[in-house]
Amino acid sequence: MKLIVRLILLVIMNQLTAQSDYWMKTYIIKFNNRSDTNYFPTYFRAFEIKNDSIFSIFKSTDTTVQDHYGTGFGILDLEGNLLQYRSIPYKGLNNYFFPEEMITFDYRSFYTSVFIKTNNEAILKYNYLTEETKIYDIRNSVCDSCFLRFGGMAKDPNGYLIVAHNISVPNQQDSFYRKVQVIKMDQEGNKIWTKVLGGASTKDLHSNSCEAVYVDSKGNYYIGTTYEDRGYYYQMIVYKLDSLGNVIVNRQHKVDQI
Q1: Which of its termini does the chain have fewer beta carbons within 10 Å around, N or C?
Q2: Residue 150, CA atoms < 13 Å, CB-side half-sphere
Q3: CA–CA dist 246, 233 (Å, integer)
Q4: Using alpha carbons only, what angle is made at residue 121 by residues 180 and 114, rounded to the nearest 5 degrees?
């Protein structure tokens, strides 16, 4: 009995020791080194780790400006201590709503997809050393006045961004039909090519949605999509593209409804 008790205590002590190697933090954000404190929702959207630093894009709510929902950038140490935080102010009519994933090539400039206004998204480039911001406009290439929403992004070995959005492609058969738009762009926002992917609109009202973007070490691009009808019967379609945007192969996988 004593042996069992000792074993239980040993397990508990080991668990406590293991738990002590981790950390949990609560942050109070002070915007751009000002004295005000903001308790509205601000949360991590994506992060990268290099050496002893964590670089992160935030969903930011800065109530000290009129259009307060936007984007922030922060640096933390590996213990979770917030070392720097900057609210990224919008310029003119651009308010950087809802940042998504984050990509960097040099850990100086960071890219994220942001919502500007209805039917208009953008890639936001932010240099945290100079605090310079640039906006690279993203539109629905099929219908300029139609919906688009971020799907995913990745970087290739040659320094290009691969960005995917869900776009609406309304037609007589289905006004809610969607496809997936893929854009390859350089680090200054110049578009190299645009590709629109997806299964066809059908009488069952099928539609497409991007779920993942991946680039392999050889520079091939993979776009993972769902192809579903209004009854939510799913089919997965994975596209493999070369660096020129040509579809090398696509694989379809049926998911049976349970």
Answers
A1: C
A2: 21
A3: 28
A4: 110
Q: What is the pLDDT of residues 211-257, one digit of tens each?
A: 999 999 999 999 999 988 876 778 889 999 999 999 997 777 665 54
Residue 29 makes CB contacts below 8 A (sequence gap 6+) with 37, 38, 42, 58, 60, 72, 82, 85
Residue with tokens 């935030």: 58
Q: Burial, 74: exposed, middle or buried (Cβ in 10 Å; 0-12, 13-18, 19+)?
A: buried
Whether the CB-CB separation of 99 and 113 falls below 8 Å is answered with: yes
More confident residue, 50 or 174: 50
Question: Torsions phi, psi of 11, nearest 5?
Answer: -60, -45
Q: Which two tokens stand for residue 155?
A: 């970087």
